[in-house]
Structure formats: structure tokens, C-alpha cells
Write a structure and sequence with these properties.
- The chain has 301 residues and is mainly alpha-helical.
- It has a 3-stranded mixed β-sheet. It has a two-stranded antiparallel sheet with strand order 2-3.
- The protein is elongated.
């Protein structure tokens, strides 16, 4: 039997490597941990190939003597600093929450609410690790779960002990939660749009170029949006805790950690403003306009 030739092009599917950035001109993916010497050698190799030079060392000395890495490739660049800042902030919030768990007087249901918030902060820590790698879809699913935790904790907080808190569904408590955070409904809708495999999110998961298609496991474009979501959720936990726990009294000789939590919230708010300014100025980022609007509206509510 004769082989039938096809004029269709082969569809190549390949994973997209996870990098911290790229050399600006040749667009070669690199890690922020690469040394300046290695980056300079990579760039010299590209230039040597393009101009037909056989000496990489000559090109490096002649053209790259004063070359310095771009700020976005610096190990101390803004996104990496923010990841470290959030890691410290989440750790502080967890420590203050645990301290309050020993010092405050709770009802039985408020104890469940307190444990839920502690669980939510742990979820955010996982989301932070994924956001630093640019895994947007996974981060948004975890942020949605964290938001549901805090909405549920708010809904059951003041219930009498004879009621069953597990009869309350977090997704049905958005309206009451808006009394504390007016943007909660819009934000929940944004997060929910990534929770199911629908056409609207497919464009964020694949990269189509000519006849090739790449599965977008992670990217620098998505990294900014993922980190910004963790910033917003961490601040939401700090502000939410302050709003609800003000009414609780301390045990004898106990200390309320609300001032410390409020201070963490202020620092997160300042970082959020810095990040928003940087985030909106990025050129060529495939970001969600709806999320930028949400992030910008937080301090206006």
C-alpha cells in the first residue's frame, strides 16, 4: 500500500520552560541566579553568531565591557523582593493569629472560624510559592479557596453555639461579605472564571505561534498577575481579621495582637500601591484588565 503524503503541518506541542526573565535582544530565557559572567558570555555568543565572529572572547571584550544586567534580571528585582516580603508578612500574620488564639476569649464556633483563617493563611503560603514560578491558573484557584475560607469564617463568626456552621455555604455569603469589602463580588467572579476549563481561560493557557502551540505551564507575563493576587489576598486576611476580631476580649493577663496585625496590613497596602504602579506600566503583559481594576479599587472603597 502506497504511503499517502499529507500537506498538513505537524502540530508540535512542547512545555514552556520556566525562566525568571530573558535577555532583551535575543530573547533567550535565563534564571535570575545566573552570574553576570555567565549572562555576558551568553550574550557574547549570540552576538558572535550574528556577526560571524569566531572569537566570543573578542566580542565580549569589545562590545560588552560596560554591559550590566537589566534590573528585571537582578536577583533582588522587584518581583523577588515582593515574594520575600509576602513570605515574611504571611509568617507574621500566622504568628499573631496563633498568639491571639491563646490570649482571646472565643465561643465554640469562633474557635472554628479562627482555625479556618489559620488554614487559609497556610493556603496562601502555597499560592505564594507557585506565584513566584508564574503558575497563574493554580494560584488563582488557591486564592479563590482562600477567599471562600475567609467569607465562611465571617459568616459563622457571630453564630450562637447551637447552630450548625457547616450549613452555611461560602459562595452564598458574598452579599454579606460586601459590607466589609465592597469589591469582594467582582473579585470572586474574576477568580471563579479560572476555576473551570472554559474557552475564556484557554487563551491564557496556550501560546500559539504560526504552526506551533506550546502549553503555557508558567510565564513571566503571568507571574506579575499571580503575585499581585497573593498581595491582595494577604491584605484581605489582615484587614478582615482586624475588622472581625476587634470585638473579642482578652483573657486575664492576655494581650491583643491587633495593633501588630494592623501594622502588617499597612505595610502590605504600601507594597500593593508600589506593585500596582509597576504592574500597570509593564508593556506587553498579557494581564487581565478586570483584575487591574479590582486591585486599583481596593483603596478607594
Amino acid at each position: 500500500m502506497k504511503k499517502i503524503k499529507s500537506d498538513k503541518r505537524r502540530l508540535s506541542i512542547c512545555p514552556l520552560e520556566i525562566y525568571d526573565g530573558a535577555l532583551s535582544e535575543p530573547r533567550i530565557g535565563i534564571k535570575s541566579s545566573y552570574s553576570d559572567i555567565l549572562l555576558k558570555n551568553i550574550l557574547a555568543s549570540v552576538i558572535s553568531d550574528r556577526i560571524g565572529s569566531k572569537s566570543v572572547d573578542y566580542v565580549r571584550k569589545k562590545y560588552l565591557d560596560d554591559w550590566k544586567r537589566d534590573v528585571s534580571l537582578d536577583p533582588n528585582a522587584f518581583d523577588l523582593e515582593t515574594v520575600h516580603f509576602l513570605d515574611v508578612s504571611i509568617d507574621e500574620l500566622q504568628r499573631h493569629l496563633i498568639a491571639n488564639s491563646h490570649n482571646l476569649i472565643y465561643s465554640g464556633i469562633q474557635t472554628i472560624s479562627d482555625m479556618t483563617l489559620a488554614k487559609g493563611l497556610g493556603t496562601l503560603r502555597v499560592a505564594l510559592g507557585l506565584s513566584s514560578k508564574g503558575l497563574l491558573h493554580e494560584v488563582l484557584i488557591l486564592c479563590r479557596s482562600s477567599l471562600e475560607m475567609i467569607m465562611w469564617a465571617f459568616a459563622i463568626f457571630d453564630l450562637p453555639n447551637d447552630e450548625d456552621p457547616f450549613e452555611f455555604l461560602p459562595e452564598k455569603e458574598i452579599s454579606s461579605f460586601k459590607a466589609y469589602f465592597p469589591y469582594a463580588g467582582k473579585y470572586y467572579g474574576y477568580l471563579s472564571s479560572f476555576s473551570h476549563w472554559r474557552k475564556e481561560t484557554h487563551t491564557r493557557a496556550f501560546n500559539f505561534e504560526e504552526e506551533y502551540v506550546a502549553v503555557l505551564y508558567a510565564s513571566g507575563r503571568n507571574k506579575w498577575e499571580a503575585i499581585a493576587n497573593v498581595i491582595l489576598m494577604t491584605r484581605l486576611y489582615a484587614d478582615g481579621y482586624t475588622a472581625k476580631y476587634t470585638s473579642l476580649k482578652c483573657k486575664p493577663d492576655g494581650k491583643h495582637c491587633l495593633p501588630e496585625i494592623q501594622e502588617v496590613s499597612k505595610r502590605i497596602g504600601k507594597k500593593q500601591q508600589e506593585w500596582l504602579k509597576f504592574f500597570t506600566e509593564l508593556e506587553g503583559q498579557h494581564r487581565s484588565k478586570s483584575f487591574v481594576d479590582i486591585l486599583a479599587s481596593v483603596d478607594r472603597t
